[in-house]
C-alpha cells in the first residue's frame, strides 16, 4: 500500500514523538503475533516453522553430516530461498551470508566435535513461503524478514537431534570413523540442556527520529529513517550490528545515541523472546507431526 | 538394502505393510488462510506436501511475461518448491530441473481437464507446491494436494482427482511406494477422477512387463478410490466445522 | 516470435466429424501409422534420416573418449541432444531468441526421448567403459528436426535407435594406461552393445461428447488415434506416449493429463502398440541388414549406385 504524504507525515510524527505511538497500537518493544512449531519434518535433524499473522511463513531445516575437517568456519552452511525470487538473487545471497556469518561468529564448535578429526557439518536451509503481494510490488525490501529467519534457525538448531555416538571421542592414535547407535530413541540434542550456548538471534530495529521500534510493520517501514539488525546471544549484544534497508526510501544518517537505544532495546527484549521460543521447543509434537 | 528384503516371503514390506495397504494418509485444508485463497497439506507416510492456490484472479504474479489470458478457460501456473532438505540426503535442485518441469506440465494438463473451465475464462490460477519431506510418491502427493487446495479455494471441479503409485515386486503389485521401494522397483503413478475407472494421468518411468500392467492399474484404481474417500471425508469434516462456526 | 497454428472453425469441425466417422484426412484408419521411411548413410556410420509422412528428422551419433562421471566410474556417457530449431516449423523458437527457455512441448519431447532410450537402458553403458574411473566412451546422439507434421516423439525414438544400431565405434586396444585407437582401414570398427530396441507410440484422444460425459458418463466412446499429423495433434484433447520393445516390456508410459480415458481402453492401446512394435523392429533390422550386406560387397553397392543414377 502506498501512503499519501499526509498519512506518512502523520505516522512519522506519532512514531517519532515522545511516546512512540504505533499505527497498530503496539508498544515500541512489542512484536506482532507470531506462531511457531518445530520438529515436524521427519527426515531432517531439526526443523521449525514460524509464521506471522499476514501469512509470511518461514520453514527452516537443519541437517547434519559427518565430515573430516580442520576448518571450523566451514562447518555451518546457510541457504535462504524465498519463493518467487531466483535462488541466486542478491537478496537471497545477502540474507544467507548475513545469517551464516552471524551463526559462524557466535557458535560453540565444541558441540559439533565428534573426535579430533571428525565434526558434524550443519546445513541450515531456510524457505520463505508466500510473501504477501504488498512486498513484491512496492518499495519495501524483504530485509525485515531477517528476524523471522533467525528465529526459525534458532528453533531448528535448538530442536536438532543427533544420533548417539557410540565410538570413542578420542581417536588421536587410531583413524576410526565415528559410529552411531541405530536407535533414534537414544538421540541426543545438538545443543544439550546443560550447555550455556544459544544460537544467535538477529533482531531488526527501525529507527525513526530519536526513537527505536522493534518489528516495524509495512506502514511504518515507509517512514523509517533507517533500519539496523542487531545480534543477540546469551544476554549479550553480538555481531552483526549493521544497517539494513527496510524500504527503498530510508537510509538517512542516525546518531550514536539512537544506535545505543537500539542495542538497549534488543538487550531488553532478548531474554523474553528466548524464553518464548524455548517454551515452543518444549511443546510436544504428535507422532505424525500434523502441525498444519 | 537388498531387493529381497523389500517384500518378505510372509508378505510384509519394509515398513510392515501388506501389498495392498496404503500408508497413513492425513490431509488438512485451509492451513494457510491468510497466505492464499486455498491451501492444503497432504501427508502420505513420511511424504509431506503443502499446496497454496491463489486465484482465480486477473493477473498472476508468477506468470511469465507475455502469457496471454485465455478466453475459454483459466491459465494455470504451477510452481514447485523442492527445497534441498526435503529428500533424505541433502541435495540442491536447480530451479529449471527437467523432472520437475515435466511434472508441472503433466499436472497442469491434468487439472485443465478437471476444472470447470467455462467458469474461469480470462483468469489466472496460481498453484504453488512445496515439498517439506519426500518419501516416495511425489507426483501422487502433488496431485492429491492440488485437488484439496483447489476445492478449498472454491474453484469448481468436476470431481476429485486422486492419485497413487503402485510398484511391482516380481509378481506382486505393491500399493503406495516409499523411497526405499521406489529406488529398487519399477512403479507406475496413476490418477483417477472421482469414483470412475477412468485414468486422468498415468506415468511410468521404468520397465514393466506388459502383461503385469493390468494388475497394477486395477490395484491402483482401488487405491485411488480409497484416497478419494479419505479426502472426501476430510472435506466433509471441514465443511461441518465451517457450518458450526456460523 | 512463435506463431500459433490457428485452425479455422470449419476446418476443426471437418476434421473432427470425419474422425467420428473413422476417416482421417490422409485416408488412414484411426490406429494406423504412416509409412516409416528409413535412410541410413551408405558412406559413414551413425547417420540416419527417418521420415514419417511429412515429418522428418535426422540423427547423427558420434563417439569420443572422455572421463566418466565421478559417481559412475564403471559407466560410459550417453547424451541425447534434442533442440528443436525453427527450421522444421515456425511454431518453434530457437534457443537464442527465446532466451534459452523451452516451451512445454520441447521439455516433454526431450524428457520422453531421454526416458525412452536412456533410462530404459537400451544402450549398455557398462560396455562403454575403457579404464574404470579415467577413460570411457562418450556417445552423443544429435537429433535434428527437419520438418514437422506431427508426432516428433515416435519418429525421434526410431531415429535414435536406428542411428545407435548403425553406428560403429573405432576398435581399440589397451596398453597399460594408454589406449590405442585403430583407424577404419586398420581394423573393422565395432558396433555398440544395444540391449533392446525401445520404440515410442503416441496416441491422441478426442471426445465426441461434452466434458461432463467424459468425466461422469460411461459411454467410453472417446476416439483414439495413432501417429497424429500436425492438424490432428493440434486438435487433440489429450495424448499418451508409451515406449515398448519387442519383448513386450513397457519401458515408459506418460499420459499427461488431458481427456480421461477408461483403463481398459489404455490396455487396448498398449496391446496394439505391442503388435506394431514387432513389425517396426523387423523393418529396422532388415534395413540395417541390407546396409551391412552392401558394405560387405562393395561391388554390389557400386552397381546399385549406377542403377540409382539411371532411374
Low-confidence stretches of chain B: none
Q: CATH superfamily assignment of chain A?
A: GHMP Kinase, N-terminal domain
Strand content of chain B: 25-35%
* Helical coverage of chain B, percent range: 25-40%
Counted by DSSP, the helix tally of chain B is 4
Overall pLDDT confidence of chain A: 85
| Overall structural domain count of chain A | 1
Helical stretch count of chain A? 6
Quaternary form: heterotrimer
- The CATH architecture of chain A would be 2-Layer Sandwich
The Cα radius of gyration of chain B reads 18 Å
Tell me what the structure shows:
- The complex is a heterotrimer of chains A (292), B (246) and C (311).
- The mean pLDDT of chain A is 85.
- Chain A contains 6 helices and 11 strands.
- The two termini of chain A are 29 Å apart.
- Chain A has one domain (22-283): GHMP Kinase, N-terminal domain (Ribosomal Protein S5, domain 2, 2-Layer Sandwich), CATH 3.30.230.70.
- Chain A has a 5-stranded mixed β-sheet with strand order 1-2-3-5-4. Chain A has a 4-stranded antiparallel β-sheet with strand order 9-8-10-11, sandwiched between helices. In chain A, strands 6-7 form a two-stranded antiparallel sheet.
- The radius of gyration of chain A is 20 Å and the shape is elongated.
- By secondary structure, chain A is an alpha+beta fold.
- Chain A has helices spanning 5-16, 90-105, 133-136, 146-158, 218-221, 256-281, and strands spanning 34-38, 46-52, 57-68, 76-82, 118-129, 161-162, 188-189, 201-208, 211-214, 226-233, 236-244.
- Helix content of chain A is 26%, strand content 26%.
- Chain B has 246 residues and is α+β, with helices and mostly antiparallel strands.
- Helices cover 29% and strands 28% of the residues of chain B.
- Chain B has 4 helices and 10 strands; from the N terminus they run E-E-E-E-H-E-H-E-E-H-E-E-E-H.
- Chain B has a 5-stranded mixed β-sheet with strand order 1-2-3-5-4, with helices on one face. In chain B, strands 7-6-8-9 form a 4-stranded antiparallel β-sheet, with helices on both faces.
- In chain B, a hairpin with a 2-residue loop joins strand 6 (161-169) and strand 7 (172-175).
- The longest helix of chain B is centred in the last third of the chain and has 36 residues, at 210-245.
- The two termini of chain C are 43 Å apart.
- Chain C is an alpha+beta fold and 311 residues long.
- Chain C contains 7 helices and 15 strands.
- Helices cover 33% and strands 27% of the residues of chain C.
- In chain C, strands 1, 2, 3, 4, 5 and 6 form a 6-stranded mixed β-sheet that branches. Chain C has a 4-stranded antiparallel β-sheet with strand order 12-11-13-14. In chain C, strands 7-10 form a two-stranded antiparallel ribbon.
- The interface between B and C is large, with 42 and 43 residues.
- Strand 9 of chain B pairs antiparallel with strand 14 (249-255) of chain C, so a sheet runs across the interface.
Amino acid at each position: 500500500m502506498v501512503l499519501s504524504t499526509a498519512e506518512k507525515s502523520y505516522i512519522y510524527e506519532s512514531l517519532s514523538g515522545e511516546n512512540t505511538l504505533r499505527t497498530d497500537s503496539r508498544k515500541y518493544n512489542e512484536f506482532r503475533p507470531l506462531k511457531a512449531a518445530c520438529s515436524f519434518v521427519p527426515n531432517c535433524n531439526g526443523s521449525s516453522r514460524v509464521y506471522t499473522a499476514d501469512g509470511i511463513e518461514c520453514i527452516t531445516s537443519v541437517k547434519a553430516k559427518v565430515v573430516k575437517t580442520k576448518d571450523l568456519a566451514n562447518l555451518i552452511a546457510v541457504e535462504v530461498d524465498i519463493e518467487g525470487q531466483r535462488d541466486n538473487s542478491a537478496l537471497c545471497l545477502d540474507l544467507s551470508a548475513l545469517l551464516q556469518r552471524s551463526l559462524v561468529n557466535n557458535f560453540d564448535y565444541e558441540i559439533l566435535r565428534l573426535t579430533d578429526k571428525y565434526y558434524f557439518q550443519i546445513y541450515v536451509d531456510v524457505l520463505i513461503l508466500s510473501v504477501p503481494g504488498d512486498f513484491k510490488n512496492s518499495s519495501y525490501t524483504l530485509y525485515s524478514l531477517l528476524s523471522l529467519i533467525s528465529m526459525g534457525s534458532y528453533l531448528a538448531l535448538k530442536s536438532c537431534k543427533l544420533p548417539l555416538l557410540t565410538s570413542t571421542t578420542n581417536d588421536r592414535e587410531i583413524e576410526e570413523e565415528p559410529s552411531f547407535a541405530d536407535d533414534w530413541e537414544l538421540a541426543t540434542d545438538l545443543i544439550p540442556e546443560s550447555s550455556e550456548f544459544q544460537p544467535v538471534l538477529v533482531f531488526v530495529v527501525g529507527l525513526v527520529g530519536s526513537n527505536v521500534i522493534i518489528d516495524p510493520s509495512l506502514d511504518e517501514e515507509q517512514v523509517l529513517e533507517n533500519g539496523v539488525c542487531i545480534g543477540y546471544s546469551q544476554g549479550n549484544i553480538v555481531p552483526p550490528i549493521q544497517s539494513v534497508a527496510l524500504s527503498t526510501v530510508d537510509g538517512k544518517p542516525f546518531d550514536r545515541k539512537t544506535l545505543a537505544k537500539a542495542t538497549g532495546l534488543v538487550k531488553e527484549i532478548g531474554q523474553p523472546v528466548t524464553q518464548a521460543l524455548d517454551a515452543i521447543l518444549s511443546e510436544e509434537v504428535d507422532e505424525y507431526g500434523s502441525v498444519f | 538394502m537388498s531387493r529381497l528384503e523389500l517384500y518378505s516371503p510372509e508378505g510384509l514390506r519394509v515398513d510392515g505393510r501388506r501389498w495392498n495397504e496404503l500408508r497413513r494418509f492425513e490431509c488438512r485444508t485451509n492451513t494457510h488462510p491468510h497466505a492464499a485463497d486455498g491451501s492444503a497439506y497432504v501427508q502420505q507416510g513420511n511424504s509431506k506436501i503443502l499446496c497454496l492456490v491463489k486465484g482465480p484472479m486477473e493477473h498472476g504474479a508468477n506468470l511469465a511475461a507475455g502469457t496471454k489470458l485465455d478466453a475459454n478457460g483459466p491459465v494455470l501456473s504451477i510452481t514447485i518448491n523442492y527445497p534441498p532438505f526435503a529428500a533424505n540426503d541433502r541435495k540442491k535442485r536447480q530451479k529449471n530441473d527437467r523432472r520437475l518441469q515435466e511434472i508441472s506440465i503433466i499436472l497442469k494438463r491434468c487439472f485443465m481437464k478437471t476444472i470447470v473451465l467455462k467458469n474461469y475464462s480470462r483468469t489466472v490460477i496460481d498453484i504453488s507446491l512445496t515439498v517439506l519431506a519426500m518419501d516416495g510418491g511425489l507426483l501422487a502427493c502433488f496431485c492429491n494436494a492440488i485437488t484439496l487446495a483447489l476445492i478449498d479455494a472454491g474453484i469448481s471441479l468436476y470431481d476429485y482427482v486422486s492419485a497413487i503409485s503402485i510398484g511391482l515386486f516380481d509378481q506382486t503389485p505393491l500399493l503406495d511406494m516409499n523411497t526405499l521401494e521406489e529406488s529398487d522397483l519399477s512403479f507406475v503413478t496413476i490418477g483417477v477422477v472421482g469414483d470412475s475407472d477412468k485414468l486422468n494421468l498415468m506415468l511410468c518411468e521404468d520397465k514393466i512387463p506388459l502383461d503385469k500392467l493390468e494388475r497394477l492399474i486395477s490395484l491402483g484404481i482401488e487405491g485411488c478410490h480409497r484416497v478419494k474417500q479419505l479426502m472426501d471425508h476430510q472435506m466433509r469434516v471441514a465443511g461441518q466445522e465451517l457450518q458450526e462456526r456460523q | 516470435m512463435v506463431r500459433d497454428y490457428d485452425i479455422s472453425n470449419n476446418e476443426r469441425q471437418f476434421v473432427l466429424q470425419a474422425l467420428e466417422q473413422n476417416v482421417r484426412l490422409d485416408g488412414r484408419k484411426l490406429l494406423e501409422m504412416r509409412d516409416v521411411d528409413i535412410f541410413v548413410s551408405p558412406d559413414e556410420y551413425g547417420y540416419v534420416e527417418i521420415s514419417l509422412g511429412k515429418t522428418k528428422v535426422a540423427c547423427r551419433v558420434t563417439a569420443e573418449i572422455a572421463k566418466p562421471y565421478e559417481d559412475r566410474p564403471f559407466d560410459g556417457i550417453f547424451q541425447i541432444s534434442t533442440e528443436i530449431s525453427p527450421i522444421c516449423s515456425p511454431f518453434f523458437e530457437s534457443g537464442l531468441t527465446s532466451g534459452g527457455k523451452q516451451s512445454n512441448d520441447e521439455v516433454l519431447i526431450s524428457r520422453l526421448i531421454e526416458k525412452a532410450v536412456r533410462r530404459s537402458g537400451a544402450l549398455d553403458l557398462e560396455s562403454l567403459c575403457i579404464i574404470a574411473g579415467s577413460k570411457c566412451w562418450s556417445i552423443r546422439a544429435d537429433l535434428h528436426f527437419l520438418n514437422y507434421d506431427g508426432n516428433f516423439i515416435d519418429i525421434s525414438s526410431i531415429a535414435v535407435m536406428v542411428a545407435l544400431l548403425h553406428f560403429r565405434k573405432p576398435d581399440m586396444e589397451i596398453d597399460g594406461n594408454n589406449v590405442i585407437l585403430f583407424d577404419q582401414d586398420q581394423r573393422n570398427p565395432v558396433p555398440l552393445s544395444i540391449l533392446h530396441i525401445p520404440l515410442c507410440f503416441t496416441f491422441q484422444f478426442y471426445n465426441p461428447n461434452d466434458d461432463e460425459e467424459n468425466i461422469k458418463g460411461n459411454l467410453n466412446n472417446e476416439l483414439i488415434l495413432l501417429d497424429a499429423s500436425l492438424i490432428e495433434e493440434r486438435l487433440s484433447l489429450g495424448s499418451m506416449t508409451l515406449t515398448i520393445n519387442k519383448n513386450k516390456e513397457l519401458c515408459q508410459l506418460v499420459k499427461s493429463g488431458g481427456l480421461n480415458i477408461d483403463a481398459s481402453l489404455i490396455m487396448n492401446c498398449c496391446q496394439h502398440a505391442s503388435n506394431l512394435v514387432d513389425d517396426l523392429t523387423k523393418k529396422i533390422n532388415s534395413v540395417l541388414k541390407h546396409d551391412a550386406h552392401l558394405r560387405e560387397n562393395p561391388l554390389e553397392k557400386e552397381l546399385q549406385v549406377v542403377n540409382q543414377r539411371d532411374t
